[in-house]
Amino acid sequence: MGLQRTGLIFFVALMAPIVASTQEQGPLNRQEILQWGAPEHQALQWLAVEAGQALPSGTGPFSVAELHMELQRIDVLRLSAVGRERYRWLQQRLSPANIRERAAVVQPDFAFSAGLDVNVELYLNSNNEVPYREYRERQRLPFLSIPLEAWAGNHGYGIIDIDLRKFPPAPGGVLTSEPDPWTNVVFTDVNSIDIEFPSRAFLAVGGDFWNLQFGRDDLRWGNGHTGSLYLGDSVREYDFARLSAFWRVFKYSTVWIGMDGNLTPAEEADLAAADSDPDFRSKYEDITDLHRSFLAHRFEVRAWDRVNFIATQGIMYGGRNMELRYLNPMMLYHNLYTNPLPGNAHMSFEIEATLRPGLVAYAHLAPDQWSSPLEDGDYTVNEPNAVAYMAGIRWLKPLDHGFVQTIGEAVFVDPWMYIHNRGHTSITYRRRIATEHFRDGGGRTWLEEPLGYYTGNDSAVIFLESRYVEPGRWFSGVRGRLEVRGERQITDTLPDRDEPNMLPEDNEAVTPTGDFPEWTTALTIFGEVQPGITRRNLTVGSELTWMTVTNLGNVDAAPEHDVQLVVYASMKF
Predict the structure, then answer these.
(1) Which residues of the chain carry a pLDDT beneath 50?
(2) Which three-class secondary structure state does DSSP give residue 393?
(3) In whole numbers, what is the pLDDT of the chain averaged over residues?
(4) 101 phi, psi to nearest 5 deg
């Protein structure tokens, strides 16, 4: 009760400014925010595919109001018995009555809920020389999670999810307290605790056709199964302000993501060298401010309730103070001509088509470095154009008490995708890990990950998965992944404007670059079940992967083999 009372007092003070109308039975509120891939979002995707209608928006996170609007367009008469059962479940989950069932405190214009999730995961592998894990850090759950939620009136929602988890292992061989953790249980080493909690903490306010969210949460733009080329799932959480306006045939989204503006130790050393040597010019000496932001606008149009057309444009802005013109939602960032400083414009185009009930095809094209015909100077002529491509197909068929789903997907990313003249304006997310608190001699460790596809630049992936699902009960399946990575790294940069232009062979480089591309093959069997042996929400599951990596680190090397086993159990109180 002490925890609930403290959370209630905090949320009353926090949400008071946006408390709206009163209702006798509690808030009629659909402003709860659900992440991309949440059970409700997955169920809506399944229903749309089975009914032969256009996929719901892939621009997450989503308010319950948006998913409810998407559910209303589903033609129930086209669904199988299992589809209709899932439709009824989703109706109940997206209903305001769900708040009254979950909340510990319900008042005429306010509701509050406190929960506790316990997750225990084990990660076992046979070969520590293989650095890749099929069950990636992004998927790993916190050991403990205490979500404190509040609904204010008909329009306000907020959450603080106090989570206890380990920070991600540092890349590049940098030693951390636990470079390759074997479990998510934090008590194995207290120094491994991620002190940047909570991972979800935000306020949201909205209505039937709009939502405004401010704080920290997950972001994902795109319906690709293995990730997205624009805002993908390689980053666990972002700090942002996001606005969405949505209708059945059109959706507009805009986001402003605050980035860590500090230079890396290598960039600071580069800058120091310029100060000590007048003949040395640093790429970073004309940075006047450490501000770093990513802004993007996204337009989605639905035609014939079968095809989605999506266009996205954004800019990584850094090195100077923000300018008002970058907030213009209708302006083409490329035409502000910020290259090489302080901005890096980025865009994408997507199409998703439901070919028939149960069958969806999709394609995604994301140009990064692109020069128009009017930009014919020496630098822009020699600057490489960089593009990422994705194509996939999704097939779903009802069967007995569940359905079979098969997905095939291919991704190709050019060598210079996501990177820029300065790492400060590359399309990447930087996160500082506080390793100086336990490392001998201190020092800072950085994670730098692409905002888009998880493999970053100079890579290609072929993916195939098939699974059988009985929603809310169990699922099992197999998947295979073939991945190749060239020698270009996400931390590389393009030549500076005052440096010699890159060689033609660099400009024309094709993925994978280098003499020894790194090849990874992974075959996985997986399953999950909700046993129903308790009234609590218990989930247990496992994954078993056989992985082979050839030319590890882009050097001539014999294949390394690894067997990886993941076992997990989750309980919601």
Answers:
(1) 1-24, 172-173
(2) strand
(3) 85
(4) -75, -35
For 344-381, the DSSP string reads EEEEEEEEEEEEETTEEEEEEEEE-S---TT--SHHHH
Query: SS3 sequence, 487-504?
Result: CCCCCCCCCCCCCCCCCH
In tens, the pLDDT along 384-404 reads: 778 999 999 999 999 888 999
Output the CA–CA distances (angstroms, integers) from residue 94 to 90, 91, 289, 372, 386, in the order listed. 6, 5, 45, 46, 41
| CB-based contacts of 504, cutoff 8 Å, min separation 6 | 382
- What three-state secondary structure class fits 271? helix
* Torsions phi, psi for 126 (to 5 deg): -100, -15
- Residue in 530, 463, 472 with CA at minimum distance from that of residue 46: 472
Distance between CA 552 and CA 130 in Å, rounded? 8
Q: For residue 72, which amino acid is it?
A: Q
Kindly tell me the number of DSSP H helices and DSSP E strands found in the chain. Answer: 8, 26
Q: How many CB atoms lie within 10 A of CB 201?
A: 18
Tell me which residue of 13, 2, 90 sits closest to 46, measured CA to CA.
90
SS3 at position 72:
helix
Q: Where are the alpha helices (DSSP H) in 315-459?
A: 378-382
First to last CA, the chain: 14
Of 174, 157, 222, nearest to 18 (Cα)?
A: 157
Predicted TM-score of the model (pTM): 0.89
Radius of gyration over alpha carbons of the chain, in Å? Answer: 24
Judge whether 359 and 384 are in contact, CB under 8 Å: no
Q: Which residues contact 257 (CB under 8 A, 6 or more apart)?
A: 219, 238, 239, 240, 293, 294, 295
Q: SS3 for 128?
A: coil
Nearest to 65 by CA among 207, 203, 204, 202: 207
How far CA 128 is from CA of 255, 348, 563, in Å, comes to 39, 37, 10
